[in-house]
Design goal:
Elements: H1 2-20, H2 27-31
Amino acid sequence: GMADRIIGMRTTLRENLEKLGSPLSWEHITNQ
């Protein structure tokens, strides 16, 4: 469903930021 796609996108985004070691806070992405 649409919600699953959005959750998947957020999860992927967070994982990518973690891999890059981004100094940006990614918690707001999953906490929305």
